[in-house]
## 1
Amino acid sequence: MSRFFSSKYQALTPYTPGEQPKDLKYIKLNTNESPFPPSKRAQKLAKDAAKRLELYPDPECRELTKKLADTLGVQEDEVLLTNGSDEILNFAFMAYCDSEHPAAFADITYGFYSVFAQINNVPYVEIPLTEDFRINVNAYLGIGKTIFIANPNAPTGISLKKAEIEEILKSNPDNIVVIDEAYVDFGGDSCVSLINKYDNLLVTQTFSKSRSMAGARLGFGVGNKELIRDLNTIKYSTNPYNINRMTMAAGLGVLMDNDYTVKNCKTIIENREFTRCELKKLGFTILPSDTNFVFAKSDKISGGELYQKLKENGILVRHFDKERICEYNRITIGTKKQMQALISCIKSILEDK
Ligand code: PMP
């Protein structure tokens, strides 16, 4: 740390992203990316957009916003596109949290929430998941704080029903409830249709998972137009050109090729069920998953050791040190071939024990 670093950030613990090895020798099942390339049209449009990189991109992102709003069945002034959904989540912390509006989120959830709270100087409470790793709905009822819920949750993979989210929304009418739907396309129940029923609801989603665009950084928020106006105030006060030309073009291509996204999600769900069955046969405990990953543990090998042995064998999964979940690994669902390789590797690791 330099002697110039502001004291307000000196105690900050930054988010730790999953490993991104430079070589391609790993089967990469650690950061919940799609194993499939972006759609052909997305690639072509991004390539064409690269020819005009001397010009700033459209700060209003008009064409993509219109296409996205049509796809979601909402109005254009009810969505805001951002640089990954991390950006809209940070905007929500900036816009809706302060000392009078502390944040509340689960003790086991997306690790960035506590970092956003810290960097924005927001007090927060972490609400324990239940024994079986579910969001404890009752603990959020009338809590009077700005609530952040990943639905489905990560790294557990378990989701809440829309009716349960509605209970939370109804019981906190004076607080914003942010529903982070990064993984909703793999079996979750989206709350987008509720944005005009509850003026305190903000839904966030991403192009990084089901839409194969993690490398392009594109996410968005959906809410009533007053909320979107607030979030635009934050955007235009930080980075008006938050989405670059190539990403904007690729996003449009992905939405035009929606059938491709739907087909890929279907394949991932099939591969997830295959992986779940095979891990079960090997004696693993696996949490129910509505996502493109599974959270699994074995009583034959510790979570840390399995992570390490898989890595030595060229397979990366995600392991968290947190006490409650350190026996588990989060395994991203890839192609069938990748999952077959994972299973046979785990088999031989267990046989060697
Ligand atoms: N929410 C959750 C629950 C996530 O797991 C992630 C991905 N790490 C994000 C949001 C952010 O994704 P992105 O910024 O790539 O849209």
## 2
Amino acid sequence: MITGQFPTTRLRRNRVDAWTRRMVAETSLSVDHLIWPIFVRDGGGEPTPVSTMPGVTRVGLDRLAAHVEEAVRLGIPAIALFPATPPGLKNEAGSEALNPENLICQAARLLKREFPDLGLVGDVALDPYTDHGHDGVLRDGYVANDESVAILTRQAVNQAMAGIDIIAPSDMMDGRVGAIRAALDEAGEIHTRIMSYAAKYASSFYGPFREALGSNAALKGDKKTYQMNPANSDEALREVAMDLAEGADMVMVKPGMPYLDIVRRVHDEFRVPVFAYQVSGEYAMLAHAMQHGLLDRERGIIETLMGFRRAGASGVLSYFAVEAARILRG
Ligand code: PBG
């Protein structure tokens, strides 16, 4: 490490004015680094607010194009779609996930028609569709791995056929990336990318998301037998290594802010595109503090997103994406 000594070296010299600070900045943040997650619901009319996430709504298909239009205009490269499935369509096996007319497939077709250059990320997991709220099927109270993977591969193909560009398996079953890659190739979907939620932790920060999708009331127990233990870090590298070996094009770390050390390790170890998900609980925490005047909104948004970039993330999934893009576009 080359270092200097005071007073010949004064590190504050490089902070003395805005143009110098810009010139020596080590990290950049632009709209290219943003992915916007949105909640799609059944029925039409005004988008319904998600009470736990101030500023976030669930939107029906009739308003979807209007909802997304600003994000496209601002240059956000991709959005991630999540369905609020009507309770009547949920069952033990999550079979609505395989319906070519489900909310996600309809949304994907509509958006591809309206905005052919907007990237679409589709979450693959069964929790929005099961009446027990788990990401796979239950056998004797345990989420059965291989049986769930067999369904998830079909869910992935169903989404790809509808126009989803990036399949994002968030279920944490073992072997699902390889199985999904094989199924996509088999279906001729060789360009459909896989962004695996490789290091996804059993976190308390998903609460508001589950409320938004209505999967919270349904969830029996917790997800600790498939999502990672927050105490673990080396294990995240094994998860990433296996997903890459199975054909993942990009990987994700989730949640974001409490796991920046994992983002850094994955980036340093693998040098592959790694994304971080600033999840619903992080959004809620920040948005509520901002609402109460405890945090400056613009600076808070940019600082947290910059933190992900500084940790080595290629990009961030954030409910602040559109607001951040407005700020970044000045
Ligand atoms: C579904 C899924 C979850 C999130 C993304 N995909 C919830 C969960 O695993 O329970 C959470 C996203 C957020 O909290 O913003 N498997």
